[in-house]
């Protein structure tokens, strides 16, 4: 296994789903997965706001990444392809300063 390979990461997440029979036990239910992602995002936020160390932050971000990859498995879409398509789209956007911070978004006409 190549730890730098997206395909190997995806296979590992699929193996985790298979090991715990997520498909047969509700673990691939999309509303449930959204709740889990919100929970993980809260844990990431707590790491930042409570000044936790980088290793703890990295672990929580990895949890979220695993959930996101698992959601692509559950919803049966190609996350790799979606990533590159979205990155290409946002690279075409202009940035704007909003409240002193940079934003890159689809700005609506004011």
Could you characterize the architecture of this molecule?
By secondary structure, the protein is mostly helical. The chain contains 5 helices and 2 strands. A hairpin with a 2-residue loop joins strand 1 and strand 2 (101-104). It is globular and about 45 Å long. The N and C termini lie far apart (50 Å).
Topology:
Elements: H1 6-19, H2 22-25, H3 30-49, H4 54-75, H5 79-91, E1 95-98, E2 101-104
Antiparallel strand pairs: 1-2
Helix pairs in contact: 1-4, 3-4
Mean of the pLDDT scores? Answer: 94
Count of helix runs = 5
How far apart the termini lie comes to 50 Å
Strand order of the largest sheet: 1-2
How many strand segments? 2
Report Rg: 17 Å
Q: Label the overall shape.
A: globular
Order of helices and strands: HHHHHEE
* Unreliable stretches covering 5 or more consecutive residues: none
Determine the structural class based on helices, strands and strand pairing: mainly alpha
- Note the beta-strand portion: 5-15%
Fraction in helix:
55-70%
Query: Which sheet architecture does the biggest sheet show?
Result: 2 strands, antiparallel
In short:
This protein is 66% helix and 7% strand. By secondary structure, the protein is mostly helical. The model has no long low-confidence stretch (mean pLDDT 94).
């Amino acid at each position: 296994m190549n730890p730098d390979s997206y395909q190997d990461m995806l296979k590992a997440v699929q193996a985790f789903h298979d090991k715990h029979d997520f498909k047969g036990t509700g673990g691939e239910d999309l509303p449930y997965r959204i709740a889990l992602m919100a929970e993980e995002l809260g844990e990431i936020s707590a790491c930042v706001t409570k000044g936790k160390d980088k290793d703890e932050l990295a672990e929580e971000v990895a949890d979220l990444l695993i959930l996101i990859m698992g959601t692509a498995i559950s919803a049966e879409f190609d996350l790799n392809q979606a990533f590159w398509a979205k990155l290409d789209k946002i690279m075409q956007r202009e940035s704007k300063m909003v409240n002193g911070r940079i934003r890159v978004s689809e700005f609506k006409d004011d």
